[in-house]
Each structure stands twice: as C-alpha cells, then as structure tokens.
Specification:
With 360 residues, the protein is mainly α. The chain contains 16 helices and no strands.
C-alpha cells in the first residue's frame, strides 16, 4: 500500500514537471527581447505632402487658366458684337459726313434714283442697286458754300430750330423744378392725384395730344406764332416726372436740418435741392433738347408760314431738286446736338444712374 502511494506521488511530480515545461514553451520568458515590427518610413511623408501640394497648385493654376481663357473668349465675343453694332449705328453718320463733300453731279448719279419722281409727283420704284460711296471721287466744299452763303434760307431754318428749342429747354426746366420740388417736399392725396395725371399725360404719344394742343392754341389766338410751339413744350410733363423722382431720393433730414437752421422754403430750394439735382437737370436738359430738336409734327400743324419752319422740317421734306444739299444740311444739323451731348455725357450718365437707384 505504501509502495503504491509512493509511485503515485512520483507520477504526479513528473506530470507537473511536464506541464511547467509546456507552459514555458508557450509563454515567452519575461527577460526575452520583444519582437520588432516594421515601422513606416517617416522621411517619406513630407515628400508625399509636397507632391500633393504641388498637384493642388497645378490644379488651381489649370482652373485659373481655364477661367481666364473663358473670360478672354467672352471678351472677344463681346468686342466683336460691340464693333458690329457700332458699325451699324455709325454707318449712316459716317456716310452723311463723307457724302457732304461730294459734288452735285456725283450725288445725283449715286442717289438720284431714290428721290426720282414720276410725272404725277409720286415716288418711283427703285429697281437698281443704290451705290453707297464712303469716299467721294472729288472732295469739294460746294455744298457747305451753298448752304451757308448762297442759300441763307437753310441757315435761317437752323436758327429757327435754335430759337424754338432753347427757350423750351430753359423754361421747361424752370417750371419742372418748381413743380417737382412741391411734389417731392410735400405729400398729400391731392398732390398724388395730380402727379398721377402727369404720368398719364407723359405716357400718351404726342400725336394724341396734338389736336387738343391745336384747339387750345387756337382759342388763345396764337396759332401760326412761335408761342404755339413754346407753350406746349414749356409745360410738358416729362421733365416734371423725371425731376420729381430725382428729388424724392434726397433725404428728408436735409430739409429738416435746413429748417432748424432757419432756412426758408426758397433757400432750401435754391441752396440745397438745386445743387444736389445738378446732374439730373443736365441729363433732363439733354433729353429735352434732342426731343424738340427733331420735332416735325408740331411746326407742320401749329405753324402756317414756311419761313418759320425749323430745319428738321426741311430734312423731312427733301425733294429731287435739293438732294445735292441734303448731306451738308444734315451735317450742320447734327453739330449742335452732338456737341451738347458730348459736353453733358457725364451728367447724363450720372442722372440716369441716380434715377435707377444705383447711386447712394
């Protein structure tokens, strides 16, 4: 029995030794060196970042170059379109100016078929191609000499145009500035109704109001006089409407500050409102001048003496016997409005921008 127990103890000891050796094999020793793993190369990361930054810059440069090329193409298209339309609009003016230096025979040979008439006085159908010449065969000033010195009636018609238009522009601005100051400075239902009637009258074409104007001037006994042209033009609603919209953009605090300082209504009007509205007055003056400089219906209806007709009526009634002078007269007729427009172009643009609410 004792021997059996001794063998059993020896067997358990051997088993324990085997298990310990197995555990040593499975679990590494504490003093053993750790296994080294492969670490990423940190020196390669800055190079990758540099390459990525370079690629991003290249993409940005490509995008900028593409955008510039697109903008360049768009600019070229706009320039071509602007040149094309400028050519279309300037061609009649250039043609009129260059043809004013042609001789009468050359004008008749080139444009005589346009103004030809039949035996009954009617127009003849133009069956041939009209020869538009920009450069005359022989440069001459005979048209200008005839218009300015040999035929003073054309020059008198030019001064008739000046006599009609200048008073209309001056007094229409004077009346419109007073009326517009009242509409802009004071508000009320009656004033709104009157201003609405101004808008309605302004939207009506002149041909609609021509007969009432003739009836009124006939009752006043001024038909056939210059007053028949002046009065309807002076009291036109166009300038009142435009100047009222301009003045309403003036801050009301300016009026109140001037009133606190002791300024009266006339001082507010002359020293505050008018200086601010200088650009609007100039732009409206240019528009009024161009409108009445080209009037044709008013003189034909309201005047009965051809010697009082403006030059615009002559240009609209050119016949076959006067085509040799038509170009020179047209050039002389264009000089004054062109100078007026070029001188006041900045004021015109400023007034239009202010009317559109762009200027602060």
């Amino acid at each position: 029995m004792g021997l059996f127990k001794k063998k059993k103890n020896e067997g358990s000891i051997e088993t324990a030794h085997k298990e310990a050796e197995t555990a040593k094999k499975e679990v590494p020793a504490l003093n053993a060196e750790p296994v080294k793993t492969a670490e990423p190369d940190k020196s390669a990361e800055p190079a990758k970042k540099v390459k990525q930054a370079q690629k991003a810059k290249y993409r940005e440069y490509d995008a900028i170059s593409d955008r510039r090329r697109a903008e360049g193409r768009q600019t070229v298209r706009r320039t071509i379109a602007a040149v094309f339309f400028a050519f279309l609009f300037l061609t009649p003016t250039v043609l009129t100016f260059t043809n004013s230096f042609m001789t009468a025979s050359e004008i008749s040979a080139n444009y005589g078929s346009i103004f030809a008439q039949n035996t009954s006085g009617g127009k003849v159908f133009v069956s041939e191609v009209v020869n538009l010449k920009f450069i005359p065969d022989m440069v001459t000033f005979s048209q200008y000499a005839t218009v300015l010195f040999k035929s003073p009636e054309y020059l008198m018609k030019f001064w008739n145009s000046v006599i009609y238009v200048v008073p209309i522009v001056v007094f229409q601005l004077f009346v419109a500035s007073l009326a517009s100051f009242g509409f802009a400075r004071y508000r009320g239902k009656v004033k709104q109704l009157i201003f609405f009637l101004y808008i309605v009258l302004m939207l009506m074409p002149y041909q609609v109001t021509l007969v009432p104007n003739y009836m009124v001037t006939s009752e006043l006994g001024i038909v056939g006089t210059r007053w028949a042209i002046w009065l309807p033009g002076i009291f036109s609603p166009f300038a009142v409407y435009m100047l009222t919209k301009y003045m309403r953009r003036i801050p009301y605090s300016l009026y109140e500050a001037a009133a606190i300082d002791g300024a009266g209504e006339w001082q507010i009007f002359t020293q505050i409102c008018m200086p601010i509205c200088r650009g609007g007055l100039a732009s409206i003056a240019i528009l009024i001048f161009i409108d009445y400089w080209n009037m044709v219906e008013q003189p034909l209806i309201l005047l009965d003496n051809e010697e009082m007709y403006p030059l615009s009526v002559f240009l609209s009634r050119i016949n076959a016997g006067e085509i040799s002078l038509a170009f020179a007269v047209a050039v002389i007729y264009m000089v004054l409005p062109m100078l007026f427009f070029l001188y006041g172009e900045e004021y015109l643009v400023e007034g239009i921008l202010y009317q559109g609410g762009i200027k602060e």
